[in-house]
Every structure is written in C-alpha cells, then in structure tokens.
C-alpha cells in the first residue's frame, strides 16, 4: 500500500501509477530527498561532483607545473606533458561541472495542489470505496481523519 503525496489517500494497489482522485502521476513525479522532501536535480548533483574533481585536478596540475622537477625540465628544453594535461583536464572538468551545476534547468515541479474541501474529499473517498480501490477499514479511517481535520 502506498500513500498519494498530493491528496494523502492510501492506495491499495502498489502497481498503480496514477492517483484517481487527484490525478497525481507517480511515474513522472520529481524525485525527492527522503530527509526533507526537497526536489533533487541529479544533473546539478553530478555537476557539483565533476566540478569538485576538476578543481582538484587543476590544483594538482598547478602544483606539478610549479614543481622543481617541472621547472628544471622546462629549462632543459623539455616539455612537462603531465603538468599541461592536469591543468587542461582540470580546467575542462571545472567548467563542465559548473555548467552542469548552474546552467541546467531543475526538474519540473508538479502543479501546486489546491486543498480540497472536506465534502469533496469525502465524495472522492466514497468513489474509491464504490470502485473497490480501498477497503472498508481504510474508508472508515480516512473518513475519521477528514472529519477530525474540520
């Protein structure tokens, strides 16, 4: 059994993808954090991780470029390929991470739910019971909850 986050009615069939009374779509609903219910944007989270790794690689590249071994190699006419790769790779990773973290649109939010009157909620509850979508025990419990909220 699962509860609809929009209308707070318990749904008996766990395979249901659509809440009949309020129209909430369980499949296309934005994912939320279990802790506080905020909408989670996976592109933003991965952008922060990629940007952080890019920053670290950029710092390691700068340290490598400024190292004594790298400076000595450049004085002798050699190139520091590793330092250059770390600097370029870190810069690209940092820019890509910033793009993902701040330039992508957040996940679309569900339309705001307008609170329904107790009469409408009881009418929907009656429809659910008449369609055998909820049991008599659940019906009585939900009806008591609706009446108690008045």
Architecture overview:
The chain is an all-alpha fold and 150 residues long. The protein has two domains: 2-29 and 110-148, no CATH class; 46-102. Helices cover 53% and strands 3% of the residues. It is built from five helices and two strands. It has helices at residues 42-65, 68-75, 81-102, 118-130, 136-148, and strands at 2-3, 10-11. The protein has a two-stranded antiparallel ribbon with strand order 1-2. A hairpin with a 6-residue loop joins strand 1 (2-3) and strand 2 (10-11). Helix 1 runs antiparallel to helix 3 and helix 4 (118-130) runs antiparallel to helix 5. It is rod-shaped. The model has no long low-confidence stretch (mean pLDDT 79).
Structure summary:
The chain is mainly alpha-helical and 150 residues long. It is built from five helices and two strands.
Total strand count, please?
A: 2
Strand content: under 5%
- Coarse morphology: rod-shaped
Radius of gyration, whole Å = 28 Å
| Total count of domains | 2
List keywords for this structure.
150 residues; mainly alpha; two-stranded antiparallel sheet; 5 helices; 2 strands; rod-shaped
Topology:
Layout lengths: L1 E2 L6 E2 L30 H24 L2 H8 L5 H22 L15 H13 L5 H13 L2
Antiparallel strand pairs: 1-2
Helix pairs in contact: 1-3, 4-5
């Amino acid at each position: 059994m699962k509860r609809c986050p929009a209308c707070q009615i318990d749904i008996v069939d766990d395979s249901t993808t659509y809440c009949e009374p309020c129209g909430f779509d369980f499949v296309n609903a934005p994912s939320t954090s279990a802790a506080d219910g905020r909408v989670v944007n996976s592109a933003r989270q991965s952008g922060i991780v990629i940007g952080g790794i890019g920053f670290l690689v950029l710092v390691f590249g700068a340290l490598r470029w400024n190292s004594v071994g790298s400076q000595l190699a450049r004085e002798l006419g050699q190139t520091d390929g590793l330092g250059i790769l770390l600097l370029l790779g870190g810069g690209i990773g940092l820019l890509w991470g910033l793009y993902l973290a701040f330039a992508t649109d957040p996940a679309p939010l569900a339309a705001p739910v307008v609170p329904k009157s107790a009469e409408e909620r009881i009418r929907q509850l009656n429809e659910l019971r008449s369609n055998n979508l909820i049991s008599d025990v659940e019906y009585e419990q939900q009806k008591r909850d609706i009446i108690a909220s008045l």
